């Protein structure tokens, strides 16, 4: 049983684990999520069964929504108990997201073998609490182990889709710049890119081609502003993402753990602009772990501007070797066997 979801950052690594468990060892994998999360749409499409509990967020919400979520907690705990006793999983994995907390907590109290997964340099509050009860934790960054009480910690990395791997491409005299903000997009990145590439004087952009992914909300505005630009292509979503990583020479993006893992696997130099409102400022802490070994650079959102994009393009043209070395250093954060390692350890935990 895999509990959690809500966002792609939780769900897609969980899917990588589920697919490997199904395909490699013939396991039956069941998901527990919420109807409001991305899992309600994606999991059935991927051929897995999913069960729903009702639970919401207590963070950065209105007082009414917080009260509604508080009232829902006892019911979510009871529903989790019902599902666990009905389905009798051999092992339970919590991957973060609203459904993960009550399901993993009740699994621990009922004596089911269980583990949690957290890919951020600073684990979320729910996992910090759960680690007092859950004995096994699968992690990405070494520093994250300092915040968790689980006695058994394994640094397996971020499970990724098989398409994510470095590929050799023919060198081009043109720079290929990829700017994206994740599946939902990132409005500050969109607005800065729109301002930069809308300027009448584009001489600084000579020789650079750009792909800009906006997400749904900003797509029409940015597309209308840049549709006539000869070197900029605007997309609402990027699919398959691996193709765009292959195409890019340099990436400007947020610093979610899933993005970090994908960039590491593809060995792409990155400029991180962390989301400043991320819980516990975890995106900045993720970025700092990569920056300190020279595998990426970071610009805080308050400092990101059209001039940032211009200077990065100029710097790439004059210091290509520097960025190539960044990409190579990034490989130390790549864990190509993450899904396999996690599944094998889950089997071991279940047998014990």
**Oligomer description:** single chain
Any idea what the CATH architecture of the largest domain is? 3-Layer(aba) Sandwich
Bulk shape: globular
| Major β-sheet profile | 7 strands, parallel
Q: Kindly report the name of the CATH homologous superfamily of the largest domain.
A: Glycogen Phosphorylase B
Number of helices: 13
Report mean pLDDT, rounded to a whole number.
92
Count of beta strands:
13
**Helix and strand composition category:** alpha/beta
State the CATH topology of the largest domain: Rossmann fold
Low-confidence region ranges: none
In total, how many domains does the architecture comprise?
2
How would you write the strand order of the largest sheet? 3-2-1-4-5-6-7
Strand content: 5-15%
Gap between N and C termini = 17 Å
Summarize the amount of helix as a percent range. 40-55%
- At the first level of CATH, what is the class of the largest domain? Alpha Beta
The succession of helices and strands, N to C, reads EHEHEHEHEHEEEHEHEHEHEHEHHH
Q: Which value, in Å, is the CA radius of gyration? A: 21 Å
